[in-house]
Design a protein that fits this description.
The protein has 2 helices and 15 strands. By secondary structure, it is mainly β. It is elongated, with a radius of gyration of 26 Å. The two termini are about 45 Å apart.
């Protein structure tokens, strides 16, 4: 594993610690405030039971409506963060090599990593507005860092002397940073202190920057003796290789827990990108990629599974 990758993982872990600490402090303040309210009013923690027009008991949270995230108004604002897993879905595959006779299988084919190997993170600010009852709409500006990777292998052999050969093995890790704007419609299933919810909608994202990290190893049999080598890890800017925007649909759900004037939430979302994120016009324009790592990008869309935790306050 490269030093650069280790450094990124340490930064990611440090970032997650900061998010968790921030959420803990906000929840602690909310809980202390809620207990103080309980002492003054003598009401149950987190809310009060009242009767509706049909004389049925209904729980009303101090955090306001389930969709608002707190307060006595329809508005709720908050923050959430967490990790995500990305899967690249290639539509059309390309190679730096061309063949006079197309083989059934070539070493140049990419082997994409599973989503469990592609870990990124996201930070989201939340603005919610309650439409009526348990239905709300939210805009969730998000900074999202997605990662996906693949391997490619290449070989050269001397047909006059099969002992003369060269094998190269490449590991490619792509990092894409987006500023996204998901617009979601949410429904809270229960009127209770603990509320499961579902939501769905669409998102649009703008690419901030793209980076590629390449690790190369190989085996050289062409110098008279077998020699294995590890090449240096290189990091390349990839902004021009991707289109500037991504859009798609999003669906998910979670649990909202009322804690005084705030709602603590755990959620899972699944995003499906609908457009090809690779710039086809620039595919063959970067000689560093072609001659240095023998690699060009396939046409692809992204699938992303994210896990998050956060807190919402009413205003």
């Amino acid at each position: 594993m490269s030093t650069s990758t280790d450094r990124k993982k340490k930064l990611f872990i440090h970032f997650i610690k900061i998010i968790f600490t921030y959420l803990f402090l906000m929840l602690l303040v909310a809980d202390v405030h809620g207990q103080e309210m309980n002492k003054r009013t003598g009401l149950i923690k987190g809310g009060i039971y009242s009767k509706d027009r049909n004389n049925k008991r209904k729980f009303e949270s101090f955090a306001g409506d389930a969709s608002s995230g707190g307060g006595s108004t329809r508005w709720g604002f908050g923050i959430k963060g967490g990790m995500n897993l990305t899967q690249a879905k290639p539509d059309d595959q390309f190679s730096v090599f061309s063949y006079t006779i197309e083989p059934e299988h070539t070493l140049a084919e990419k082997e994409y990593y599973k989503s469990s190997e592609n870990t990124g993170f996201q930070v989201t600010f939340i603005a919610k507005y309650t439409l009526f009852n348990n239905l709300s709409v939210s805009l969730q500006p998000t900074f999202a860092s997605y990662k996906y990777g693949y391997e490619s292998n290449y070989a050269w052999m001397d047909f006059e002397n099969n002992n003369n050969s060269l094998f190269l093995f490449f590991r490619h890790e792509q990092t894409l940073n987006y500023l996204e704007a998901p617009l979601l419609l949410r429904y809270d299933i229960l009127d209770a202190p603990i509320r499961p919810f579902v939501h769905g909608g669409a998102f649009y994202g703008r690419l901030l920057n793209a980076l590629k990290e390449v690790d190369v190893t190989g085996q050289d049999n062409a110098s008279g003796a077998t020699e294995e080598f590890n090449g240096a890890t290189s990091t390349l800017g990839m902004d021009d290789q991707y289109v500037k925007s991504q859009y798609g649909i999003i669906a998910g759900g979670g649990i909202s827990i009322s804690l005084g004037p705030a709602n603590f939430e755990l959620g899972v979302d699944y995003k499906v990108g609908l457009n090809n994120i690779v710039d086809e016009n620039n595919r063959f324009t970067d000689n560093t990629l072609i001659s240095g790592s023998y690699d060009i990008l396939d046409n692809m869309t992204l699938r992303n599974l994210s896990f998050s935790m956060g807190v919402i306050f009413g205003i």
